[in-house]
Amino acid sequence: MAKLYVNPGNPKSKINRELYGNFSEHLGRCIYEGLYVGEDSPIPNTNGMRNDVVSALKEMGLPVLRWPGGCFADEYHWMDGIGPKESRKKIVNTHWGGVVEDNSFGTHEFMELCRQIGCKTYINGNVGSGTVREMSEWVEYMTFSGVSPMADLRTKNGHEEPYTVNYFGVGNENWGCGGNMRAEYYADEYRRYQTYVRNYYNDKKIYKIACGPNSGDFNWTDTLMKVAGRYMDGLSLHYYTVPGDTWEHKGSATEFDEKEYFVTLRKAYYMEELILRHGAIMDRYDPKKKVGLIIDEWGTWFDVEPGTNPGFLYQQNTMRDAMVAAINLNLFNKHSDRVKMANIAQLVNVLQAVILTEGEKMLLTPTYHVFKMFRGHQDATLLESSLATEEIGMEKDKIPNLTESVSRAEDGTLTLTLANLSLDTAYPIETVFAEGTPECVSGTILTGAMNAHNTFDAPETVRTADFTEAVLDNGAIRFTIPACSVVSLHINMK
Ligand code: AHR
Predict the structure, then answer these.
(1) Please, how many CA atoms are within 13 Å of residue 167, restricted to the half-sphere of its CB?
(2) Is 33 a catalytic site residue?
(3) Helix, strand, coil % in the chain, rounded to nearest 5
(4) What tens digit of pLDDT does each residue of 149-192 get?
(5) What is the pLDDT of residue 204?
(6) Which residue's C-alpha comes closest to atom 5 of ligand 1?
(7) From 30, 77, 245, 484, which residue has the greatest number of CB atoms within 10 Å?
(8) Are 178 and 211 a contacting pair, CB within 8 Å?
(9) What are the C-alpha distances in Å from 92 to residues 101, 125, 314?
C-alpha cells in the first residue's frame, strides 16, 4: 500500500493557470488546416477558425496561447500579415519545409482566435532579423488606444479597439535559430529591445519574457540574470523529451518497446533537475522569485510520421505521451513558486499536439485528455503532499513508479492528479489527510497500453472514463491505480 499524505493546512504557491498553456507556430499544419481554414472553407468555421478545434480547446480550458513561433518568430515581419488578404505578401517559410506562407493568418486573426477560445495572448517578437522599431511598432499597433500612426493603421484595418497583449517574448532561441548570439550579446540586445516594448495601458502591464536557456545551458541563465534580470518579468526555458540519441534517430512515436518507454520517461523527468538548477541560479539574483521561469517549449519530439514532410514535425501521440504530460504537469505544479507559465509544443498537428486533424476530421490525443483532467489545478493553490514511491524501469533508465500533485481551488475543492508509470503493476493507494476529512470523491481515469493511440478511423481508442474505485474509508481515500494510467480525483472536504 503506497501512502499519499496531503496537508491542507500547508498551502504553498499559486498554480498559475498559464502552466497549462500551449504554443502555435507557423509550422506544418498547426496554423493552416489545424486552426485556421479561412472563411470560405467547407469545414465549419467562424471567421476562418475551425469550430470543432475551438470548441475542444474551450473544453480543455486552454488559458494562454503563444504565437507566431518558435524559430518562425525571428523571421516574421508582422506588417506582412495585416491589411487586405489579397495584398498580403507571400513569403517562403524557410525554416519549416520551404512552403509558401501567404500570411492570411496574421495579428488580427491570432487575436480573433484567442477571443473565440477565451484565452490570454502571448506574442513572440523578432530580435534575430527584426529591428527595435519594428518590434516597438507592433506593440503600438496592437495595444495603443490614442491617436498614433500604428493605432490609426489598426483602425484602418478594421479594429478600432486596442487588443490585449498579456505576454511578450523578446526573441526566441536567440542562442540558435534566433540569431546564434552569445549570452552576453543577447543580454544587451534584450535590454535594448525591451525598452521599447511600451506599456500603453496602466491597468494591464505587458509581461516581458527574455529568451532563456537551451535545456542545461546554465551559463546562459547566469548571464541573463546578471546582466538583464531587472528588466524582465520572465525568463524562458526550452527542453524537449527526445528518446533517441541523435536528431536523425529520435525514435518512432508509436513503434517502441519497453526500454524506449522508460528512456523517454527518464528523459521527461530531467525537467525537474532543470527547474531546480536554473531556479537555483535565478534565486541568487532574484531571491524573492519575482522573475518567472517560463517553460514555453516542452514535450516529446519523435521522428515524423512515415510519408509526411520532415519539415512539418507531424507525430502521433500515445499513452506514453500522456505519461510525459502527467510527469511534467505535476512537476510544474510542484514548482509553481518559480514556474509561472508553460506552453507545450504544439497545439495542433505538430510535435506533442493535443489535437490532430485530417481534412474535416479531428481527434483528441491522450495528451489532450491529461490537460483536461488536470484542469482543476488551474489557479488553485498547491498543497503540501508526499508519496512513498519505488524505483521502476530498466537498466540505467530508472524512474519513480508514481507521480502526483494536489491543489485546492478557491471553492475548497481538492484536485489530486496521479499517474502510475509502471507497465505491469497496479498499486493500492491510501490517501491520508493531515487536516480535515474528505466528504465525497469523484474521479476520471485514462488508461491503455503504452503505445495505444487514437486514429482517424478509431478516434476513441484512448479516452477518459469515470473512475469509481476511490472510496472513503475512515477519513482516508483508498483505491488501486492500474498500470499505465492517469487518475484525477475531485475531493470535497468536510
Ligand atoms: O517547436 C519547434 C521548434 O523547436 C521551435 O520553432 C523552436 O523554438 C524549437 O527549436
Answers:
(1) 31
(2) no
(3) 30, 30, 40
(4) 999 999 999 999 999 999 999 999 999 999 999 999 999 999 99
(5) 77
(6) 70
(7) 30
(8) yes
(9) 6, 19, 19
